[in-house]
């Protein structure tokens, strides 16, 4: 076995792990990323494309916003449309004075790979059998690369290995509490090389939700709610477009430019939080600690908010000799996580048809939407939540 030492081992090279590595590198904090898949594989994943205000600021602060500012699109809000009811615009400009960005996670991942490669950061891809050891005392991570077993000794392990990674499992069951809601439907998403609609648009329809998103002037992403039992093969392009267009109001359906899909994927919806996010020298960030349904696009934004708190904590530890932020990381990150879980759940409930619901549920849903249409305080609250709450001092 080959043994080496670093200050921080980051398990997982998705957006959370790489952003953390990038920020720590800028502070001169020695770290290594250990990722199971190849760089190409990780970079090819298609995920949401809405950046909260705070996420965009974080990219700017750390020299990663050049392409976003050039090729992305600043957004003043998002649209909700409703079968037989007026449209509603989540007016960020009016209620918060701030904007969000239409900018794909895939591009962020590419920029992170480029920045880390250029700075000579230690990224170990295609690492097999990644395991965490002795996390309450003398932590280390072992893995196998090209048939050779390695051990990385460290001060801290950051578990950024997504929902299925080993880090969360390393926290003993008797201290770990998991909170979960699994939804009885999925989102089917397609990518198409056609100009998108002007606004990110969420549509409520009695057949199910539909959504219009965007990546760039010639790339659109659309989604429809489907039953959990459906498979991608059940959804040829023709059926997808017919469903989408039926669920959108006439004026928007007529603007949608259809075409052959270049990608199609299906994702079940889940809300999940694991507490605490710290155990001994192990800290969880991103999907390793929590999952949100895609409604509201909080997943990447939440991963970056964890990274903001965790990088600040590690900087404070190494550069200022203070452990205040390390000690408060779990509770501080969780406050913001629960706020995002909350808005994602409420938007999911508002916009989807649940197969087991009763007419009472539909009346409540309509009443929630009417409240939004008629109440300025409700509009203001939603705008702040959609934009993303500020990070805590
Ligand atoms: N060993 C090493 N790496 C692992 C292991 C393992 N055993 N298991 C998982 N990983 C890696 C995955 O291959 C993946 O690249 O951890 C990474 C986790 O990345 P994501 O799942 O993207 O999670 P995260 O970085 O927290 O990003 C969260 O981005 O991917 C979206 O939907 C997600 O929007 C959310 C946000
Ligand atoms: C996306 O860009 O794919 C997207 C945007 C907003 C959402 C979900 C997905 O709520």
Automatic annotation (TrEMBL):
InterPro entries: FAD-bd, FAD/NAD-bd_sf, RIFMO-like
Pfam families recorded: FAD_binding_3 (PF01494)
Keyword Ligase among record annotations: no
Entry GO MF terms: FAD binding; oxidoreductase activity, acting on paired donors, with incorporation or reduction of molecular oxygen, NAD(P)H as one donor, and incorporation of one atom of oxygen
Domain FAD-binding, residue spans: 5-340
Keyword Flavoprotein: yes
Keyword annotations of the record: FAD, Flavoprotein
SUPFAM superfamilies: FAD-linked reductases, C-terminal domain (SSF54373), FAD/NAD(P)-binding domain (SSF51905)
Protein name in the entry: 4-hydroxybenzoate 3-monooxygenase
Organism of derivation: Roseibium aggregatum
